[in-house]
Design brief:
Chain lengths: 265, 334
């Protein structure tokens, strides 16, 4: 069976002023439909670059990103991104922000009423229907991120890409949103790739955790399968042996075998 | 899962050899007992959570809010606070002016003379006694019409060019030096050239307005477009917005605060330029009125016209600022 998403020997280097810096080297990964995969690694290891490559926002230097056997070479709504800082348009209301995406993606296929229902359904999914007429400046950081997720989901993407989606949130809000993402994933079965630097978050949410080595020329160090049944509940898992083992495995990778060394410049 | 498992390798079973090290401090048996107890303690101790002691909740009633009454005295004092200072300053200025220009040898008329000689201009802004003898309000409106056309064109072309320069590196490299040089040319220096090109005074004046007010619009728009956050661009790319959609839905709203700063500077400059241009081109605008009054030595009329120009310029500036405030609502907020 062909993989849903295939990262085929990807290299990525940036040239700046005659200097070529190699960021990613020989990334090989296949992801099945419906899978939830986290990518974890120290800062500067090229996680976000990898996500941008999958999104098509940056181009690969060599190798290919294949989604359903078709090569990805430009960004598109079938690979929706939830950005770390939500990047909602501040002059539009919550509803209008999602409408921008929905009317562009479904403008030709859905009627006005259908589009409205679709927007409201996605807002309901993240429990933000009550704030549909508010502007982003009027809602909290966690709510903005919920709307960002709703906007991405409203594009009905083949793959949902989350770029450190909870990085800027406080711990309690983060936990709420993690639960929301788990709930959405279980309901929609959406194939999801999440960039994170939070070990607990990775173990709690993922089917597999991809651990990146340190840059330059970072690559995939190990891939850990998380054999925890779903639905997962954070309180029960906090003392679960499998959960702790997985957590320990990731921690050992990050802090023993691939310790982050501050680059001496 | 048993709680002991993780501790197993760390078990502190006292070994006979180590006990001796403590023997000077306490008898062996006691040490052993102590260590045993501590192990016991680790194994038995459970984290205990104490419920908060129940406390009957109390309802504390707010003191009844004082009824807000219509208080004419408070409103009056507030109004006086904002109006009094400028009134005092204006009165003082008039007094100083009156004293300074009262002597028979004074070259400029005092305010009393302005009031007496230019009374019909002050009291009747809208009179119309045929061509070349109309109220100052009409003249201001005619000048405003020219500004509206010239500035309107400058706003449209300026935003479009600014977007181009802000968006494309090559357009910036090519156009920016040209803009930087042309924008320093004083408005009136364009006038002979535009008179030669248009062969008529009215379009020439409009062109001068256009060329004067377009530069701040271009430059500010370009800066605004260059400062559009990368994330907004990424959102547009993921949605595959085309150039026009991107311009209308992302670029203009995102750069709106900058664009309106440019427009505000532009309208001020165009009001400066129209008066100068009309002085030279003639016609019926407020600028020509001043030139005409100078030629017939009606100094009080000039002073009244200056007041009209100042108030109108102030209103234009506030108008653009107000429109900008409404349009960019929410844009500047994070």
């Amino acid at each position: 069976m062909a993989a849903y998403l295939k990262l085929d020997h990807i290299d990525k280097s940036f040239a700046r002023g005659g200097q070529v810096s190699e960021v990613l080297k020989d990334i090989r990964l296949t992801i099945d439909k419906g899978e939830f995969v986290s990518i974890i690694g120290h800062s500067g290891c090229g996680k976000s670059t990898l996500l941008n490559l999958i999104a098509g926002l940056t181009k690969v230097s060599s190798g290919a990103v294949l989604l359903e056997d078709k090569e990805v070479d430009s960004p598109g709504p079938e690979r929706a991104v939830v950005f770390q800082n939500h990047s909602l348009l501040p002059w539009l209301t919550v509803y209008e922000n999602i409408n921008l995406a929905v009317s562009k993606v479904f403008g030709g296929t859905k009627s006005r009423a259908e589009r409205h229902d679709w927007i409201m359904r996605n807002l309901d999914l993240v429990q933000m229907a009550h704030a549909k007429d508010k502007r982003p400046a009027e809602i909290s950081g966690g709510m903005k991120q919920r709307v960002g997720i709703a906007r991405a989901l409203a594009m009905e993407p083949k793959i949902l890409l989350l770029d450190e989606p909870f990085g800027a949130l406080d711990a309690l809000t983060r936990a709420h949103l993690q639960d929301a993402v788990m709930d959405i994933h279980s309901r929609l079965g959406s194939t999801t790739i999440m960039i994170t630097h939070d070990v607990d978050e990775a173990v709690l949410l993922s089917d597999r955790i991809v651990m990146m080595t340190n840059g330059p020329a970072a690559t995939i160090g190990e891939v850990l399968a998380v054999p925890l049944a779903r639905p997962r509940r954070r309180v029960e898992l906090s003392s679960d042996r499998t959960f702790l083992r997985c957590r320990e495995a990731v921690l050992k990778f990050l802090y023993e075998r691939h310790r982050f060394v501050e680059a001496a410049e | 899962m048993s709680a002991t498992a993780p501790f197993a390798p760390l078990s502190l079973k006292p070994r006979p050899r180590r006990k001796r090290r403590f023997s000077r401090l306490s008898p062996d048996t006691t040490t052993e007992l102590c260590l045993d107890m501590s192990i016991q303690a680790i194994e038995d101790t459970k984290v205990k959570v104490f419920p908060a002691p129940p406390e009957p909740s109390k309802v504390i009633a707010f003191a009844p809010k004082a009824r807000r009454r219509f208080d004419p005295l408070a409103i009056l004092s507030k109004l006086a606070g904002t109006l009094l200072p400028p009134v005092v300053v204006i009165v003082l200025m008039l007094v100083v002016w009156q004293v300074a220009c009262s002597s028979p040898t004074a070259s400029l008329p005092p305010p009393s003379q302005v009031w007496n000689e230019a009374y019909d201009l002050i009291a009747h802004p809208f009179f119309d006694n045929g061509p070349q003898d109309i109220g100052l309000a009409w003249r201001v409106l005619i000048s405003l019409q020219r500004v509206a056309i010239g500035f309107g064109l400058a706003a449209i072309v300026g935003v479009a060019l600014g977007a181009l320069v802000g968006q494309s590196v090559w357009a910036m490299r090519g156009l920016d030096p040209v803009f930087q040089i042309l924008r320093t040319v004083p408005p009136l220096a364009w006038l002979p050239l535009s008179l030669a090109a248009f062969r008529d005074s009215s379009p020439s004046a409009i062109f001068v307005i256009f060329i004067t007010s377009i530069w701040p619009v271009i430059i500010n728009t370009a800066v605004g477009v260059r400062n559009i956050p990368e994330d907004y661009r990424n959102v547009a790319r993921i949605l595959r917005l085309n150039q026009i959609e991107f311009f209308v839905k992302i670029m203009v709203p995102a750069a709106a605060p900058y664009i309106f700063t440019g427009l505000r500077i532009g309208i001020g400059l165009s009001w400066l330029a129209i008066v100068a241009a009309e002085m030279l081109t003639g016609g019926v605008g407020i600028g020509f009125f001043i030139w005409d009054a100078w030629n017939s030595s009606r100094l009080p009329d000039i002073i009244v016209a200056l007041a009209y120009i100042g108030v109108t310029g102030f209103c234009l500036d506030r108008l653009v600022a107000a429109v900008g405030g409404v349009v960019t609502r929410g844009t500047t907020a994070k």
